[in-house]
Amino acid sequence: MSDRKKRILQIVVDEYINSAVPVSSKAITEKHLTDVSSATVRNELASLEELGYLTQFHTSGGRVPSPQAYRFYIEELMQRGNLSAADLDYISGAFSDKTADVEHLIKSVANVISDLTDYTSVAIGPNAEEERIRNMTLLPCGDGRALLVIVTGSRILRDSFIDIPESMSDEDVAGASHMLAKLFGGKALSEAREVEAEALGEFGQYRQVMTEVIEALKSYARPRDEDIVLAGPEKIFNHPEYEDIGNVKNFLSVISSKDKIAEIVGDEDDEIQINVKIGSADDKDVPEDCSVVTATYSAGGKNLGTYGVIGPIRMDYSKVIAVLENVGKALEELVDGKNNKNKDKNKEKNDE
Amino acid sequence: MSDRKKRILQIVVDEYINSAVPVSSKAITEKHLTDVSSATVRNELASLEELGYLTQFHTSGGRVPSPQAYRFYIEELMQRGNLSAADLDYISGAFSDKTADVEHLIKSVANVISDLTDYTSVAIGPNAEEERIRNMTLLPCGDGRALLVIVTGSRILRDSFIDIPESMSDEDVAGASHMLAKLFGGKALSEAREVEAEALGEFGQYRQVMTEVIEALKSYARPRDEDIVLAGPEKIFNHPEYEDIGNVKNFLSVISSKDKIAEIVGDEDDEIQINVKIGSADDKDVPEDCSVVTATYSAGGKNLGTYGVIGPIRMDYSKVIAVLENVGKALEELVDGKNNKNKDKNKEKNDE
DNA sequence: GTTAGCACTTGAAGGTGATGAGTGCTAACA
DNA sequence: TGTTAGCACTCATCACCTTCAAGTGCTAAC
Q1: What is the tens place of the pLDDT at every residue in B142-155?
Q2: Chain B residues with beta carbon closer than 8 angstroms to that of A132
Q3: Positive or negative CA dihedral for A138, A141, A145, A147?
Q4: Judging by DSSP bridges, how do beta strands A135-142 and B274-278 pair with one another?
Q5: Which residue of B has its CA nearest to A171?
C-alpha cells in the first residue's frame, strides 16, 4: 500500500470518527490533501475499497471505514494522542490516597475513564486468585450459620455464609476461626484451595466446617458480580449511532448482564496490555456495531484489574487509548507510592 | 359521575393498556357496550374529557387516559386481577429455603417480579436501621487498617475498613473486637449509634478505634448501593412507548443511578402497603412518561424491603399489583415458616 | 499518473391527493 | 330528556411524484 493510500485511509478514519458522516473525495481534497484533485482521491478510494478497507452504503454516499480499516488504523496510522493538560490534571487529581480500598478504587477508575472518554466504561476487579490472604475469620450468626470473611490488606477478598453444626458454641467457632487464619494466612486463594487434605486432618472434630470452607473457597474461582462494574451507561446516547433503538437494545442487552461484561472484558491474552475488539468478529458477545477497548493494569507485580470502554465501532480510539494508558500510569504511581510509604513505615518501626 | 361514565372510563383504560392505541367510540360500542350507539358514547367521552380523565392528541385520533384517569382506575375501576395458576406456581417455586441470605433473596424477588410482570423491577433491601446486630468483629488487615464487619442472623449488615493505630497488635484488635461484640450485640443499628458516651469510656486506651467505629456506624444511616437492585432493565423494550429514543433516555437516566432509584422507591409512607406514582406529578424523579408501583413487605414484624416495577404510565396495574401482592404473601410464608422452624429447633433443644 | 468534465445514482426533502378513522354537531325520535 | 342517525369536518398516513444536492465512476485529454 502506497504512502498516499495510507494517508488517505487515515484521513477517512479520522474524519469519520469526528463527524459520523461518510466521507467524500471532495471533503478530503478540500480539508487535507489540497495538492491533488478529488478525482485522484476517488481513484485511490476505489482501490482502498477493493482492498477491503472501505465500504459504501450506496454509490453517492461517501465512504465509511470497515472494521479492517480500524484495525489497521489503530496499529499503524493513528496519532498516539496526547491528553490535554486538563485531562491529565483530572486523572492525577482523581486518585487520591483516600480511595484506600480496592472496591472504591475500581469504581473511581471506571468513573474517570467514562468521564474523560465520554463512553460507557466497564471494569473487572483485580483477579482474586493470586492475592494473598491477610486474615480470615468465621463469625457466628446463630441458627447454625456463620459468616466466612477473607481479607487482604486492601479489600474483602470474599465473604459468604456457611452452615455449621448446631452443636458448635461461639467459642468453638472462634477456635475454628483461629485455625483457619493460621492455616490460610499468607496464602493465595488458589493455593488455599489446595490444602484440603492437610486441613481436614488438622481440623479434627470440625471436619464438617472445614468441608464447607473448602466448598466456599472453590466457589470463589470466578469473579463476583460486585467485582464487575459499569460507569456512565447513559453516555451511549451522546453518540449518534445510538439514535437507533435497535443499537441501544443490543448495547443494553450486553451491559445489563454482568456475565456478558465479564466475558467481553475478561478473556484476554495476558501478554497484551491494551486489547481492542472491533464488532462481533473479534468476540461474539460484542454487539455488531460496538467496539471494546480494554487495558489490564498491574503495579508492583500485583494485578489491578482490567478496565476499558464499550462504545460504537466509530470510536475515538486515539483518545480512549491515551486515557487508558494515562490512567494506568497514575494507578501504578499511586500503588507504588503506597508501597513505598508502607516500606518507609516498616523501616521506621524496625529502626526504633 | 354516572355508572355508565365509570364503565366507559374503565373500558377506555383497559383497552388502552392492552393495545397502546387511542380508543375510539366505535371500538367501545363494538367490543363492549353493544347496547348503545357510538354517538352516545361520544357524548360521554366528550364529557369525560371535560372532567379531565381523557385527552386527545387530535380530533380524529381516539382518546387516551390522563394520569388522573389511571389514579381513579386503580382506586375504583380496576378489576383486582387474579394470577394464573402458572404464575402462582412460579412464585411459590421461586423462593425456596436455599435463598438463605437476604442479599440473594432480594435479587431473586426482583427477578421474579420482573419476569412475571414483564417490566423492569426495582428493589431496595430491608431497612438496616432496626435490624438487630448478631455479631460484630474487627479483622486486622495490616498497614494500620482493620475491617469492621457487622452481621445479623441472615446477612452482612455492614462492613467497611477503618484506620487503627499502628501500635495496636493483632491481639489488641481481637480484644477490641470482643468488646465491640459485647457492647453492640443484640442492639439495632439505630440504637448502636447512641451508645457513644458509654462506649468511649469503656474503651479506654482504644478510644481512637471506637471513634472510628462510631463514625462508621453513622455513615450506615443510608442504604448501600448494593442494597438497591434492578432486574430486567431490557424489559422496557417490550413496550411500544420505548421505541422512542427520548423515552429510553429518560428511563435509563433514572435506572442507572442508584441514588435516583432509592429516591423513587424509598420515600414512601410507612402506612401504605402498595404505592403508585404516576408520572412526574407524583414524584419529580419519576420520568414524565413512567409509573412506579411499589410494595413494602414485612413479616414477623421485620421489614423485608420495598419492591416494585418501573414502566410506562400505560402499565398493566392490575397484573402488577396482583404480582406484588402474591410475592408478598409468598415471602411472608417463607419467613414465617423459617421462624417457626427455628422455634421448633430451639424447642427441641430445650426439651433435650 | 493526474485531472476536468460529465453522465449517472441515490437519498432526502417537499408537495399532492386519496383514504380512512374518528369526531362534533344537529335534528329527529322515543 | 336521553338517545340516535346522519353528515360535515379534521387529521394522520400512505403512495406517488418531483426536485435537489451530493457523490461517484468513467472517459478523454494533459
Answers
A1: 778 889 999 887 67
A2: none
A3: negative
A4: unpaired
A5: B178
